[in-house]
Amino acid sequence: MTQSELISQILETWHRHNNILLFLLEEIPAEGFAAVPSQSRGRDVARQITHMYRNRLEWIHYHETGKRPTLERFDKGEPPERSQLTEFMRESGEAVAQFLEKP
Q1: Which domain holds residue 57?
Q2: How far apart are CA 12 and CA 9, in angstroms?
């Protein structure tokens, strides 16, 4: 297997993973975003998804610069809405794909 073929397979897998996550995000009932999973640190589902978004961007930034970024937090006040969460995951999913494509 060539490096190009391997990168292609990794990207295909990543896109499939992100599409499944976006599908699940669309299927969560509106009231489900306020649910707090057991064994969590008190984050509701909306904030758990936001945490995943932040981790994706932080991971990319760290591996590109060697420094930890400072990103906006959503821990206080109103949680992000489904449309925001969907945009976060699309944006960060594409950012990860672009990062993985780099030589």
Answers
A1: 3-30+38-101
A2: 5
DSSP letter for each residue of 51-81: HHHHHHHHHHHHHHHSS-------SSSSPPP
Residue 49 host element (H or E): helix 45-65
Integer Cα distance of 63 and 73 in angstroms? 21
Global confidence as pTM: 0.85
Domains of the chain: total: 1
Is the Cα dihedral 8, 13, 19, 22 positive or negative?
negative
Rounded to an integer, what is the distance from CA 65 to the centroid of its chain? Answer: 20
Question: Would you say 56 and 96 are in contact if contact means Cβ atoms under 8 Å apart?
Answer: yes
What's the start-to-end Cα distance of the chain, in Å?
16
Length of the chain: 103
What does the pLDDT look like over 27-82, one tens digit per residue? 999 999 999 988 878 889 999 999 899 999 999 999 999 998 877 776 677 788 99
